[in-house]
Amino acid sequence: MRDCWWLRENQTIEWAMRLRVALYIAEALDYCSSEGRPLYHDLNAYRVLFDENGDPRLSCFGLMKNSRDGKSYSTNLAYTPPEYLRNGRVTPESVIFSFGTVLLDLLSGKHIPPSHALDMIRGKNILHLMDSHLEGNFSSEEATVVFDLASRCLQYEPRERPNTKDLVSTLAPLQNRPDVPSYVMLGIPRHEEAPPTPQHPLSPMGDACSRMDLTAIHQILVMTHYKDDEGTNELSFQEWTQQMRDMLEARKRGDVAFREKEFKTAVDCYSQFIDVGTMVSPTVYARRSLCHLMCDQPDAALRDAMQAQCVYPDWSTAFYMQAVALAKLDMHKDAADMLKEAASLEEKRQRSGRGS
């Protein structure tokens, strides 16, 4: 599986493929709703994966059984459904709001806060929202329809948003290259034509994850410390407040507990750091993911590993931690795919000279 290419600067997906991605997500949500699973935790662009034939797929990681499962959401409040901020519950209407943010990400090629996007849509500045990497190769009429749908999804009142069938019925008529395979539009080899992947020895992290050796993973994360967090945060002097100092102190306490293998304490401390939301740290998410694994909570571990990937999309450690969590959830094929992707990312990073 491959992740959301349209949010990477060096990857540009053509307009027809973006419309296909939007429809496939809508169809997946409609199917889940018809099967009695209308709730999806923290739907975002990174939940969309591409299979070996290039077809977009909605990750099953966010599926929930009922609203009581939805006790947490993205730490970025700008993208959180307003009703979730009021009552802390994920509802079917919350999922539609999140789908609207995915449409914005998909079509603009970047994260745009919904309020800002709605102002631009109302101001008829839709073309300013479009991904410049498309270089104008899209239908403005179709873009208007999609952004109008996004606007409806992002309405403040949940009852004013469309349902999943409305999403499908709006997006289906826009598909203008239905006979062209996804792998052709993405410019990737067809699955059966793909060259064999060379076998390389796994790194210590890869080996530990393949063996599901949590103790070895713990030792590696302790030794790596926060080396991979460089560049993920830029703080101004004005942001260095008492709240910041308190937050960093919580992280420090978490690090001490993590080294001492007091994993429940580490989870509490790291959660204090994360919940403030001023800084994001992929390392903290990876460490809390391992803590959840140590406490036999693979679902929570998987969510944290995916959040680490959201912060740092090409970080092999985030993929390795997802592989372990998936294996713990008995999703062994997905775990093997994730392990392979992690090893590939690690190899690319080593070739680029940035180290392991």
Could you describe the 3D structure shown?
- The chain has a two-stranded antiparallel ribbon with strand order 1-2.
- The chain has 2 domains: 5-193, Transferase(Phosphotransferase), domain 1, CATH 1.10.510; 204-351, Tetratricopeptide repeat domain (Serine Threonine Protein Phosphatase 5, Tetratricopeptide repeat, Alpha Horseshoe), CATH 1.25.40.10.
- Helix 9 packs antiparallel against helix 10 and helix 13 runs parallel beside helix 15.
- The chain is mainly α and 356 residues long.
- Helices cover 54% and strands 2% of the residues.
- Mean pLDDT is 80; it is low at 64-72, 193-198 and 233-240.
- It has 16 helices and 2 strands.
Walk me through the topology.
Elements: H1 15-34, E1 48-50, E2 56-58, H2 82-87, H3 92-108, H4 114-122, H5 126-129, H6 140-153, H7 164-171, H8 182-186, H9 204-210, H10 214-224, H11 242-259, H12 263-276, H13 282-294, H14 298-311, H15 316-328, H16 332-351
Antiparallel strand pairs: 1-2
